[in-house]
Fold:
Amino acid sequence: MKSDGILLKMEGICKSFGEVRALENVHFTLSHHEIVGLVGGNGAGKSTLIKILAGVFPPDRGRIYLEGREVHFKSPRDAYEQGIYTVHQKMEEILAPHHDVAANIFMGEEITKPLFGGLLRVLARREMEKEAESVLSRVGITIDSVRRPIVSYSGGQRQAVALAKALRKKPKILVLDEPTAALGVKEKFQVLHLIKRLGKEEGIPIIIVSHNLEEVFEIVDRIVVLRNGQIVGECSPSLVTKEQVVQMIVGGE
Amino acid sequence: MRKREFLKFLLDNSVWIIIVVFFTLNAFLTPKFFTLLNFRNILIHSSILGIVVIGESLCLLSGHFDLSVESTLALSAVLGSMAVKNGLSIPLAIGIMLMSGMLVGFANGTLIRKLGLNAFVATLITYIGIRGTALGIVEGKTIWNLPAAFCFFGAGNIGILPVQIVLLAVLYLLFHAVLIYTKFGRHVYLVGDNQLAARISGINVDRVVITVFMLSGLLSAFAGLVMAGRLNSASPLFGTGMVFEAMSAAIIGGISLRGGIGSLFMALGGVVLLSSISNVLNLHAVSPYWIQTIRALMILFAVTLDSLKRRLVRYEE
Amino acid sequence: MRRSPLFWWLVFAGGILLSFSVALAQEKLIFGYSAPGLGDEGQWNIQKGFVDKCKELGIEVIVTDAQQSAEKQNNDIETLIARGVHAICAVPHDSAAISIAVQKCNEAGIPFFTIDRGVTAGNVVLTVKADNVKAGAIAGEVMLRLLQGKYNGVAKGKVLEIRGQPGQDVAEQRAQGFHQVLEKYPDIQIISLPGYWNTEEGFKITVDTLTANPDLDGIYYHADLYIPGIVEGVKAVKGEFAKVGEPGHIFILGIDGNPAGLDQVEAKLADGVVVQPLRDYGALIVPIIVDYLKRGEEALPKPGTVLVEEGASWSPAMVVQTAAGLEIWTNVFYVDYLGAGDPNLWGNKPRE
Structure:
């Protein structure tokens, strides 16, 4: 891996909440075209780390570099504008359930067209629907109509729409927090497949937080293990067994 | 699937279908109901409530209650009438009225978004406070005998059409277009449907909500102008209890109290239906004691239809 | 020896205490007045009459305003009890809901009086109110005379009655008196609809009824607030409004006599109004309260007697023992455009 391949670097990140030390001197990097799995027990600091990356709160100490430049996120909006797209827990929570697929994919970035010689601007529905269809087909999501509301689709399909929505914005980094936690077995498989495609074929760098080692082993390039606010191990899934990773998560030899 | 689509179409337009049935029945059952004069009456009766319902619907669509509409209406009527009675020019008086409405709306929006108050609580505060202000300004007195030009919006005519009816049509078309065709309108719906998602997706929720409340205040204040003209007077007790009627109309029209669902065109249906019901009850001069019960049954009926519709589109395993 | 500052403070405080007790020793009377909602013009006038009479007699009054809330009125009265007033007078917003506060008042030993409406439970020393049944009956008789005048002595015609809130005692009594008079004449048809004390509702009822019955002869309203709605409603349907005495005029009369109502009568928009002596309730009840505090039960007027005072608009008033307690029913009277300008009517008195 080339050194200039590093996209994100988090250096010496510390964060405390009162007496509780959530993160202690954490160094974390992400390369272009890489899928990283972030694992650890409850309270290990996974979600704190992601929230700092998403701009929910600033670190007490430490620096964040994106493409070699230092960045400061004052709000989720900042992180979002820098191209870091975070999807928390249930992906469908970022969707408006009673709006159609196209409206959801373009939420907040609706395309408008001029009316009466530019006096007014109105929504360009047709254009948005067309582009929504093309985004969906690009990621290989089959949905019968972009005009049907989200509530009429299954959980897996909703997740797929949420991912398509993220994709359209061409994120620099996609952060997925427990993307399959709320799904059934078959749908879980479909969504994992989709994430893998996004990472491998579309080349989008992804950070996945997950409890499920099974799926982490299936899709990631690198596993980062957190315990008590510190990184206690990094490894490639092809070189270790699940038991070894579990050992790292719970601690002790 | 065909049948299901058709059923959905029927449910989507349920209010207007009920209105058609209701009108047909009463054409035979109620004397003088099916006359041009009476249709005109129904539309005149619908106009003031109708204008208030536009504002209330905007708020409901964005996922917020606005209890303050009726108080804003009263304050506006009282302020404007005081102004013209004290020799201010009519355009200036109308400017003061509309301004007062927007200020109340701004206060509501700011209390909710900047202070983090629940919409119900925030507008309850203005609902009480603004009515109190209206009462305080005139010490409970009724102002009457207003200049004819001031009454134009409430009692004037354009050709053979009463201004009120023209206003109702124009405002509904305008705001329907705003909601359906503009980015702002889309954002109102999205904020109501899932506020968090809207915020994450970069929609300026504060701005949308504050704007919605300002529009609601503006429309209520305008309704106050129409009512003052209609009744050639202004009382701080104007519009008492109207907020419940406005919400009933919106709910009958299928606008969800949780936000994000419904259309203004259907809310107008709710207004016309409520006005037609009371019109028929008046024409028949039935016992006054049962009117509220009939209204409640209508709301129950509309809400049942609505939940049926939801079930029809929801994904099922 | 120098006095410490504390000493002077104590002297100062003692002085203040002393002057307080001197003030208390004068035994100045303090009354509490609980209004149901001063936004209403009539209520404001009742309150004004009460306060004015108290001032005249050198009595201090604490006025509270329940703003149309039964709950707030209960709280208001409790506050007045805590304040230790000598007597409380209230206009109940809700006759049943206020009972709790009345009972607390009884327990505290503070005499309780009401104006305009009675209470459901608890001891009320005396209630002063207008005779609403009689007001309705007077309106009925005037309407009868007008109809007979129109149809050459024959009692027939169609009359719209715009009521108040269905179920509320004032509205029911005003309806009762009116119907008592007119139901003896089967050719007079009465259409009764509730206006919920709402001007706009009055407008709608007028419009709808005139549409269904273009031959309507008269309109009887339960409160003056309906008049603008009635006038505009007639205009909206007929295109123009025929004033009193003009051809095509619809008889309009009702109950209240507030400033707007009297003005409308004077301007010949309405035929007349049955006036209640709202502003003078206070003049009647305050001296009785003062007397009661001095002499107790025997200060109260005896049931069956008629109170008369030259020149007072409440006079003559009947003293009646009802199931609810001792009541004084004041006079009500009808004024048409000739009398509507009388400066002694409550609606014509300046508000300052």
